[in-house]
Design brief:
Helix content: under 10%
Radius of gyration: 21 Å
Structural class: mainly beta
Order of helices and strands: EEEEEEE
Strand content: 25-35%
């Protein structure tokens, strides 16, 4: 028997993969990851702008095999706005 294909989604605000099984073992792009009790895995910096493969690892005690991979595109982070203020020199009095 095989584990079900993950159906993770992306929470960009909290930078998490969500919708995973709680406290479960996964392989993401070949690296071992474990979801937390809230069913999340924190996004790695290197995943932004990449297509990642998420595999739910099989459980020996349940005699299950690894799942089929879910491929998920994680968009690049948007460029942060710059904080600044344009000053119209014609309005600067006494300068």
């Amino acid at each position: 028997m095989q584990e079900g294909t993950p159906s993770a989604t992306i929470d960009f605000v909290n930078e998490n993969l969500t919708g995973l099984m709680p406290s479960a073992a996964y392989t993401i792009n070949g690296a071992d990851e474990t979801s937390n009790i809230s069913r999340n895995i924190s996004l790695e910096e290197s995943w932004f702008g990449q297509l990642i493969d998420i595999i739910k690892k099989g459980v020996v005690a349940d005699s299950t095999a690894d799942s089929t991979a879910q491929s998920l595109l994680i968009s690049s982070r948007p460029i942060a706005p710059t904080l600044g203020k344009e000053v119209d020199s014609a309005l600067m009095v006494g300068q």
